Amino acid sequence: MSSERTEVQVRPGVESDLDALTDIYNHYVRETPITFDTATFTPVERRPWLLSHPEDGPHRLMVATAGDSQRILGYATSSAFRPKPAYETSVEVTIYLAPDAGGRGVGTLLYKALFAALADEDLHRAYAGIAQPNEASVRLHERFGFRHVGTYREVGRKFGRYWDVAWYEKDL
Description:
alpha+beta; GNAT_dom; single chain; about 25% helix; transferase; Acyl_CoA_acyltransferase; acyltransferase; GNAT family N-acetyltransferase
């Protein structure tokens, strides 16, 4: 990758992004405890996930692309926090970056766009679960006003060990 600064653009995700988004997510399934999924997905299997994030409403998908190439550098989503109706003013947010896109401000741009898109929605809180350790994600969330509200200890088992998940919340 070149060291020159690439212009990053953020836009709503569309169906033609599905292959690239699936590739990014599968990297984290295979290589990290960041997601507790343990089997990779095909784009067809991920299609319902993509379609659950329309261009409007509280459940959004924002995609960051690299300037001229339009290569997808990462994505951010807001999704239902829990399925019961009383939770509808809460969302769970997350970011996944291409393996070579970290440390370049892409996550910051994605969250700025996501929270701007959500500003006029009837939402009260955003939540983020961060598998530990993940200092970069903790710093990003704290920069956006998230505060730590608790940690589920050894809540998930992957790669033959147990992982904690720290939970963060933000007023919307």
